[in-house]
Design goal:
globular, about 575 residues, alpha/beta, 6-stranded parallel sheet
């Protein structure tokens, strides 16, 4: 009787859940059906750019997916750039108002948006900027505007770049949970946080040189837009000369301090709208829906752009990580598509699995035998991200790209000390001498460490060989600039690790030239799961997400960040070709 009651309750619960999902489906369809009709771009409109979500190079949205507009977890850089380019020639758009704050984009992505705004201005239209708070990256973007304003009691951050690296040696000693480390390369400092409490001189040197190089690019760009010499910009940064609106205006970083209504009056004046009339704003998300219907690149032939973004892991892959299946399938589709005449691989990755990196590298070798293959590096293309890049015919990098990091390591978690302190003893039984190779509960044996070191050295030598052949350098020369060292795009270009400094559009143009195309369209790969499929997956993992949010709320954001970073290392499989540290440049 109890069994039947439970069975009926389960069936009833499933039916109710199904009805709720079906109901939500029809509600969503109704919303989507009316969405495009509600977006109207009137005469004398201002395109308002406010980036309300993290920016990825590519979100993989299907233009025919009716749910795509309802999921705004991330913004696609490709869609943002396309919308700005369409607005440039839209007679109804008079200018752009940039009102973003706390932009969630990488420096290279920010630079691409910045270049798009400068290109937009070449049409004779205006770009204006206003914010209550300018974080350093926000100001870098806003400095491309004709005029930049701030709230009279607002805040502007302009002090130079900095980053922070966390060290876990003390945490390991206190908890008894440690990471066994095997590495090659004196600069392969990804594992340094587990071996020391302090930063090595080599690591400090490479980080300082890296962020100094990136800062120089930022300063030069701002200098050109604001007509302030790089020397004076560095003096402003050193003296915090923009720390108040008054100082920022006096130093030339800003054009004035205005309340938002006063800023709107300036916009009206530029357009020729009376003060008592309303401005016609069109938001970025709405304009994206209109802009996607307009093609800028046209032609019967296509350039395929394949996006590889995120950490490199074993598996299918998705918009947040690179797996071998999606990338390999995308390469095969691009090769088999007769309309595709050339391929561009866009890489934004700190690296990861050396095995997956090599699988993708091999497919790149096969692909470029069929069609020209150009590589474009975004925010970061380091270690495994660089590994797959050297498989192309030509490499473009942004000046601010973080790249190189030619080196490998392995980390394996060990809980021997914790288990011993808790009175847990693990005993192993095997049939052969090496059948019990490693136990999390026992110290690593010399035999196992030697085998792992041998694997690391073999992978490193393979990595050197791939770079040597791809960049037409001797192995000895590659080894000199390798050792896990990271470089900016500027330095990588000087060293011969990349061919040209340029963005994705430059790489596409180069691919078209190699294929002999004057007119062409752009076809993007891969396609990720539809909005509805993703919703169904998320629906099933709600408890997990709730649990993560509760933990973060309880222990605090910074502590949660440490926990996640430590956990990420424990989940790595196999030899890693990965960027030497988690880098958050501020």
């Amino acid at each position: 009787m109890k069994f039947l009651r439970n069975l009926l309750a389960s069936i009833l619960g499933s039916l109710v859940a199904f009805m709720i999902i079906v109901g939500m489906f029809f509600i969503f369809m109704a919303l989507v059906g009316s969405m495009d009709d509600s977006v109207v771009v009137k005469k004398n409109s201002v395109l308002e750019l406010s980036f309300v979500a993290p920016v990825l190079d590519y979100t993989g949205k299907d233009d025919n997916d009716p749910f795509a507009a309802l999921w705004v977890e991330e913004l696609g850089l490709d869609e943002i750039l396309h919308s700005i380019a369409v607005a440039k020639n839209d007679d109804n758009i008079e200018g752009i108002s940039l009102t973003t704050g706390f932009l969630q984009a990488g420096i290279s992505q920010t630079r691409e948006i910045r270049k798009a705004l400068i290109n937009f201005k070449s049409s004779g239209k205006f770009v204006m900027a206003h914010s209550d708070v300018y974080a350093q990256r926000d100001y870098y973007l806003a400095s491309a505007a004709d005029e930049v304003y701030i709230n009279p009691v607002g805040v502007l951050d302009f002090k130079g770049l900095a980053t922070e690296v966390l060290f876990y040696k003390g945490l390991q000693e206190k908890t008894g949970i440690k990471m066994e480390v095997i590495r090659h390369g004196k600069y392969k400092s990804a594992v340094e946080p587990f071996l020391s409490d302090t930063m090595s001189d080599e690591n400090r040197t490479q980080i300082k040189e890296l962020i100094t190089s990136i800062w120089s690019v930022i300063v030069d760009d701002i200098s050109e837009s604001r007509n302030i010499t790089p020397q004076n910009l560095n003096i402003i940064a050193d003296t915090l000369g923009g720390r108040t609106p008054e100082y920022a205006v006096a130093s030339g970083l800003l054009d004035g301090a205005l309340h938002y209504d006063q800023y709107e009056d300036l916009l009206k004046e530029k357009i020729g709208v009376a003060e008592d009339e309303e401005l016609n704003y069109v938001g970025l998300m709405d304009y994206m829906q209109k802009a996607k219907l307009k093609k800028i690149n046209k032609g019967s032939d296509d350039i395929a752009v394949i996006y590889a973004q995120g950490e490199i892991l074993i598996g299918e892959g998705g918009k947040n990580y690179i797996g071998e299946k999606l990338i390999v399938d995308a390469l095969h589709k691009a090769i088999d598509n007769k309309n595709v005449k050339a391929i561009v691989l866009r890489v934004d990755s700190p690296g990861g699995s050396a095995l997956v990196s090599d699988i993708i590298w091999r497919e790149m070798q096969l692909a470029k035998k069929e069609k020209p293959l150009v590589v474009s590096f975004g925010n970061v293309a380091a270690s495994g991200g660089y590994y797959i890049g050297v498989g192309g015919d030509m490499i473009f990098a942004e000046p601010t790209t973080i790249t190189g990091s030619i080196g490998v390591f392995g980390t394996i978690p060990n809980v021997h000390e914790l288990a011993e302190s808790m009175g847990v003893n693990a005993e192993q039984v095997g049939t052969n001498k090496n059948s019990v190779d490693y136990s999390f509960f026992e110290p690593m044996t010399d035999t196992f460490r030697n085998v792992m070191q041998e694997s690391i050295e073999e992978t490193y030598d393979t990595f050197l060989d791939r770079v040597s052949k791809g960049r037409n350098m001797s192995v000895e020369r590659v080894n000199e600039i390798a050792q896990g060292r990271v470089w900016s795009g500027v330095d990588a270009h000087a060293l011969g690790l990349v061919d040209e400094l340029g963005n994705l559009e430059d790489a596409i143009i180069a691919a078209a030239d190699m294929a002999g195309l004057e007119e062409y369209g752009v076809k993007k790969y891969p396609r990720y799961k539809s909005g509805f499929e993703q919703f169904m997956e998320d629906y099933g993992s709600v408890k997990t997400k709730i649990g993560e949010s509760i933990i973060q709320e309880e222990i605090g954001t910074e502590a949660y960040k440490i926990l996640k970073e430590f956990k990420q290392f424990t989940k790595q499989e196999g030899v890693q070709a990965k960027m030497p540290f988690s880098l958050n440049i501020k």
